[in-house]
């Protein structure tokens, strides 16, 4: 068991100074040879930086700084950044947001953007690319949309005991062919009028594969659940993307070759793509140095990592805010933390600015505290709901006063006692393998010791992130959500009382009502207002403390072209993997 200790400060000044020397807002570097192409233009041209002509052929090995437990991101236990990355080369996404938050439809599957053909009830029409297929001779069609409806419905009558990461299809009433065979029409109930209808994830796993397993998923909810389990446990032989899997071991590696049946407009030039799991970014950098790995877009980067990268010839890198926002969540079913007064005091005692100064600011000197759960600080819809509450301020006096007013007390040893006289203790969980996560855990424990709470620090292997969250095996936990520029599904996924990914099991009827209202609001401006009411309510519940949009890195050897990061995509650099290649000489 690990106990609180205040982190040493000796290395922090070196890291902060280094980042400011590298350029303040972002850290950017490249190999020592003059003229090496790199990421120096990503700040001004994020959509097309590091672009160029590709050679015909070549292989890329890409490092992933974590592991995955299955192949089905429909499921809450597998909806992690690592699963989203390893499935990116074959997954049937509707489209992607680019670095300017503009939505780009997936032309391998669709002939154009979805169209709203009726307001009440809301009906959305999708026109398929006539060549859209699963890479095995089977076309993408009506059954595939229906399969995803059932899988993501959250309805036990359609998928028995299924736990979708988000019940994005909960309001679907029917899915039918349109006026022509290439058109699919989805009809929603009167409880759905989302302003983000265009971005719904309407495809996932291929229905014909479930049929081939003898599963009557259309009529038997248990068979539908069995199909979801099959897709979780089985390495895919199909692909709707630019690559298909030749060989893979769950949680370890996936080797891809071009999908010859892919119907996308971008020509694939690579002969082979390997995605390989590593237990740390340090290991990935070592492999890049040795020439066995070509790049990575890790979810975290430390000052020590930047030092490693700066000292290396032939490694290009860029550090900036990513899609991941780090936060601390509370399990409201804990015997002590079920009390919102205690939860509020806990968050008031935690000093977020100190956490940032001792971790994230070592890498990105202007890393700023995140002050809204749904909107980035530079968003036009941003409102600060946190500062006025004192949450995240490290104000132990405010926390102690609130506890005293609620009949908490302290014993002769200074330990916090609840109103019944029980000593308040709980655990704090986090993924190991990161110095910054350890530093943050130490600081949280130190802050809470100042109000008399003994916190047990309990790290877990990074590969166990999904199961740890899915089983709510924590009292407090630090992790990151990777999100897109959308709020409707995010709000439901994070906080709806019936959402499997509401890992701390918050149950707030007023919050649920706001989330339902958001799904019924077709006007984006009005939806943004409701979004801010939701964020404010989450603050009042003292359920989740945002920390920062985590600085992330894109790292690649100079030979890689069209490889760049994308904060707006959950797949990060893999969002445009079809365009990747070896730079033409």
UniProtKB/TrEMBL annotation:
Protein name: Peptide/nickel transport system substrate-binding protein
SUPFAM superfamilies named in the record: Periplasmic binding protein-like II
Species lineage: Bacteria, Bacillati, Actinomycetota, Actinomycetes, Glycomycetales
Taxonomic superkingdom: Bacteria
Biological source species: Glycomyces artemisiae
Gene3D superfamilies, A to Z: Dipeptide-binding Protein, Domain 3, Periplasmic binding protein-like II
One annotated GO molecular function: peptide transmembrane transporter activity
PANTHER family: MONOACYL PHOSPHATIDYLINOSITOL TETRAMANNOSIDE-BINDING PROTEIN LPQW-RELATED (PTHR30290:SF65), PERIPLASMIC BINDING COMPONENT OF ABC TRANSPORTER (PTHR30290)
Domain Solute-binding protein family residue range list: 123-486
Single Gene Ontology BP annotation: peptide transport
């Amino acid at each position: 068991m690990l106990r609180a200790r205040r982190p040493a400060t000796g290395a922090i000044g070196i890291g902060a100074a280094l980042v400011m020397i590298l350029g303040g807002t972002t850290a950017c570097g490249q190999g020592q040879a003059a003229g090496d192409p790199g990421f120096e233009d990503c700040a001004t041209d994020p959509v097309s930086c590091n672009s160029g002509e590709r050679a015909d052929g070549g292989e890329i090995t890409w490092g992933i700084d974590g592991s995955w437990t299955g192949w089905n991101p429909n499921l809450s236990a597998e909806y992690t950044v690592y699963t989203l990355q390893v499935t990116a080369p074959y997954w049937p996404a509707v489209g992607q947001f680019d670095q300017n938050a503009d939505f780009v439809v997936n032309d391998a599957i669709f002939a154009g953007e979805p169209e709203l053909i009726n307001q009440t009830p809301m009906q959305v029409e999708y026109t398929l690319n006539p060549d859209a297929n699963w890479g095995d001779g089977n076309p993408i069609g009506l059954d595939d949309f229906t399969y995803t409806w059932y899988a993501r419905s959250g309805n036990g009558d359609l998928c028995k005991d299924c736990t979708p990461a988000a019940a994005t299809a909960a309001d679907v009433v029917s899915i039918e062919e349109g006026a022509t065979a290439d058109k699919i029409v989805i009809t929603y109930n009167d409880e759905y009028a989302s302003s983000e209808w265009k971005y719904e994830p309407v495809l996932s796993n291929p229905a014909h594969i479930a049929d081939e397993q003898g599963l009557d998923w259309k009529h038997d909810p248990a068979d539908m659940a069995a199909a979801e389990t099959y897709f979780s446990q089985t390495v895919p032989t199909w692909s709707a993307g630019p690559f298909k899997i030749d060989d893979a071991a769950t949680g370890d590696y996936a080797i891809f070759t071009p999908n010859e049946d892919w119907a996308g407009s971008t020509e694939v030039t690579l002969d082979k793509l390997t995605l390989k799991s590593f237990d740390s970014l340090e290991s990935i950098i070592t492999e890049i140095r040795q020439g066995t790995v070509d790049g990575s877009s890790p979810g975290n980067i430390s000052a020590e990592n930047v030092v490693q990268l700066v000292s290396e010839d032939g490694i290009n890198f860029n550090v900036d805010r990513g899609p991941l926002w780090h936060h601390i969540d509370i399990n409201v079913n804990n015997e002590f933390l079920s009390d919102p007064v205690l939860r509020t005091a806990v968050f008031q005692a935690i000093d977020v600015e100190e956490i940032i100064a001792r971790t994230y600011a070592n890498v990105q000197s202007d890393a700023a505290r995140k002050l809204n759960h749904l909107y980035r600080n530079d968003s036009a819809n941003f409102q600060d709901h946190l500062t006025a509450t004192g949450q995240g301020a490290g104000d132990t006096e405010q926390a102690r006063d609130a506890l005293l007013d609620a009949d908490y007390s302290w014993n002769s040893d200074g330990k916090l006692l609840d109103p019944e006289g029980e000593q308040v203790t709980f655990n704090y969980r986090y993924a190991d393998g990161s110095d910054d996560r350890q530093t943050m855990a130490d600081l949280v424990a130190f802050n809470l010791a100042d109000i008399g709470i003994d916190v047990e620090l309990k790290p877990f292997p990074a590969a166990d992130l999904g199961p740890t969250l899915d089983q709510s095996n924590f009292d407090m936990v630090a992790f990151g959500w990777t999100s897109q520029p959308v709020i409707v599904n995010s709000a439901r996924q994070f906080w709806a009382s019936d959402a499997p990914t509401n890992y701390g099991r918050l149950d707030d009827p007023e919050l649920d009502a706001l989330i339902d209202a958001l799904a019924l609001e077709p006007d984006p401006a009005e939806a943004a207002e409701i979004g801010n009411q939701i964020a404010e309510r989450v603050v009042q519940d003292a359920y989740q403390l945002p920390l920062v949009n985590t600085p992330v890195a894109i790292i690649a050897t100079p030979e890689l072209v069209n490889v760049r990061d994308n904060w707006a995509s959950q797949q990060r650099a893999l969002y445009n993997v079809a365009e990747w290649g070896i730079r033409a000489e």
